[in-house]
């Protein structure tokens, strides 16, 4: 797979993550949309004590991380690729922790959180690491 | 002499990957520790809280099945709620006491609870007990007590033991009668009627509110907040309208 394709994949996945994290951040701050709709426990997760970290919504942290990934991908210098991979792998570990929290501590799952934690973040980590490990000639094929 | 690796040969993870893994481990550890230590927000713990039912919030206020407040109060606030809904629980704990003290107890406003059970089996089980308590004019204490002890979604938290515990704190409630009434036709009828009303009103979720002034058509309100101040404004407008 060419580096251009991998770079595009990282950008597309990060954009999807940005959209999901943006929605969850909006829901966190806008009480008007905080109603129980029977959609799978998003309200419970959003209202749980784990939804914030030192007063900062976890969704906002995700939004910032995806934004940083997009900026670093646009910059695309070798150190930027390493930082993107670090962010993605760190997010992967944190996402695993959040899934465990939802399943065993909060005992409710938010479908948007699961899409982020179990689909978007692993895809981002895979693409970022694969790109980092790509052979130098493949990296410079554009 | 050991074999000498060919220059440029790639063995194992590269240096950048090791750097990324190190950075990732650092980020993950910081985030997870911070999450455990600095977590905030409203607690929606699934465990039983053991909070009592009411503490006298509704004592001395007339109740009639699903209604609380003086029958001749001109303004009625209708609440659609699901006993498993955490936002309804927050409304019950944080806002309802102010509304009861300022509007319902003085006889300015009456409230009607229309329970709907869309989150799952525990919703219907809890709702049946709440409506059954309504047959003894204690619906509001029962819903308040169950909200206070709300557990994880459909985790079987509405146990007979919990209901007995909540019911035992409601003055004048006949607990044996409560359990006998859970499957009564009146309870099933109210459950079905509330559900039909919610569907007709296109209630999108809970909590959801309507206001009725006198015998006029009820109108829907769109909360921008569940704080007492929002409802004070709504009720003051209805009272002067």
Strand content of chain A: under 5%
Number of discrete helical segments of chain B: 9
Low-confidence stretches of chain A: 136-142
CATH topology of chain A: de novo design (two linked rop proteins)
Strand content of chain B: 5-15%
Unreliably modeled segments of chain B: 3-10, 41-52
Summing up helix and strand content along with how strands pair, one would put the structural category of chain B as: alpha+beta
Please report the number of helical segments of chain A. Answer: 6
Strand order of the largest sheet of chain B: 1-2-4-3-5-6
Q: Helix share of residues of chain B?
A: 40-55%
Give an overview of the whole structure.
The complex is a heterodimer of chains A (142) and B (241). Chain A has six helices and two strands; from the N terminus they run ααββαααα. Chain A is mostly helical. Chain A has a single domain (3-132), classed as Up-down Bundle (de novo design (two linked rop proteins)). Chain A has helices at 3-29, 42-47, 58-75, 78-106, 111-133, 136-139, and strands at residues 52-53, 56-57. Chain B is of the alpha+beta class. The termini of chain B are far apart. Chain B has helices at residues 15-37, 86-94, 96-104, 121-134, 139-148, 160-167, 175-181, 185-200, 228-240, and strands at residues 63-64, 67-68, 75-81, 109-115, 208-213, 219-221. Chain B is globular and about 80 Å long. Helix content of chain B is 45%, strand content 11%.
Describe the structure concisely for a colleague:
The complex is a heterodimer of chains A (142) and B (241). Chain A has helices spanning 3-29, 42-47, 58-75, 78-106, 111-133, 136-139, and strands at 52-53, 56-57.
